[in-house]
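Hi V.,

Quick status before I head out on leave. The structure for the redesign project is tokenized and pasted below; the design run finished overnight.
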């Protein structure tokens, strides 16, 4: 074993694990009860090749989901679904035999996004800004949703615009969001614990949302978006989306002024909606999960 200290923090975000990497590995091995499983899928910033190497006796294949490219991995398949990521970013971090899948083409989305993609794209052929969707995360512990609503009150949205806000039932600011929704100049509904998110997105004309993995859901449906950075690991996603033209990126601390500038200068017109939708839809078709599953099955049957 390469590490001299099995217990101490060794990689970035190690504090997120809640235990030493070695103790976590031993608990995982115990839980797997000797295996072997066909595939073990690992998705954690605090785990790397040392943890993964200890899993080898109990799994036939090992897959890693990552988006940092900042540590070595011992795996057969690596997935980084972020825009702008390329295979060469992992060349020195995985073995030559590892299959590396990079980019939102492989984004792991639920099947309903691919199913609703044709409908969503067809209704954007002649775009109109009538329905705005706000999705700042189910919990939204920082109350970004209220910040967005308060900023929009000072913006020039189209006459007849309707706003839909999506939140989880455990969101600590849910009552405040409901109160603010009732005071908005436009009809504003608060949808809680939505079970058909793909449908809600498909029927929206524009979205303001957190710059996390839901960005790929919006892209698969060609939903023009303003993405707001709520966490450090969202910065690269937001930047890549803006550079590509698939979305506009804003920081939470300056969002109010930026939204005011965008809408009050005619932002969200038909031309912007159509071009942004086309670029976003070209990034992913929503079939990434099926592709990855087929890849795993092919590797398993070799």
């Amino acid at each position: 074993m390469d590490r001299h200290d099995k217990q101490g923090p060794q990689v970035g975000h190690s504090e997120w694990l809640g235990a030493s990497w070695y103790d976590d590995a031993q608990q995982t091995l115990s839980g797997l009860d000797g295996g072997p499983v066909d595939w073990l899928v690992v998705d954690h910033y605090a785990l790397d090749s040392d943890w993964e190497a200890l899993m080898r006796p109990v799994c036939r294949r090992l897959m890693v989901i990552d988006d940092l490219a900042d540590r070595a991995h011992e795996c057969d398949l690596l997935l980084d679904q972020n825009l702008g990521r390329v295979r060469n970013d992992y060349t020195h971090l995985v073995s030559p035999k590892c299959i590396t899948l990079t980019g939102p083409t492989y984004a792991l989305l639920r099947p309903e996004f691919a199913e609703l993609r044709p409908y969503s794209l067809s209704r954007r052929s002649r775009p109109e800004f009538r329905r705005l969707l706000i999705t700042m995360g189910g919990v939204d512990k920082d109350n970004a949703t209220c910040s967005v609503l308060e900023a929009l009150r000072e913006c020039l949205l189209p006459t007849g615009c309707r706003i839909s806000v999506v939140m989880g039932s455990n969101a600590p600011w849910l009552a405040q969001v409901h109160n603010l929704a009732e005071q908005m100049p436009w009809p504003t509904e608060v949808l809680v614990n939505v079970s058909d998110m793909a449908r809600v997105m498909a029927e929206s004309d524009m979205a303001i949302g957190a710059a996390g993995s839901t960005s790929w859901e919006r892209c698969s449906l060609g939903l023009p978006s303003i993405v707001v950075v709520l966490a450090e690991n969202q910065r690269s996603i937001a930047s890549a989306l803006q550079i590509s033209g698939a979305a506009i990126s804003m920081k939470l601390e300056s969002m109010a002024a930026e939204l005011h500038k965008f809408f009050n200068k005619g932002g969200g017109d038909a031309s912007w909606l159509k071009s942004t939708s086309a670029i976003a839809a070209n990034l992913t078709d929503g079939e990434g999960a099926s592709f990855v599953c087929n890849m795993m099955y092919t590797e398993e049957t070799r």
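Above is the designed sequence. The longest helix spans residues 288-300.

G. will cover questions while I'm gone.

Best,
W.
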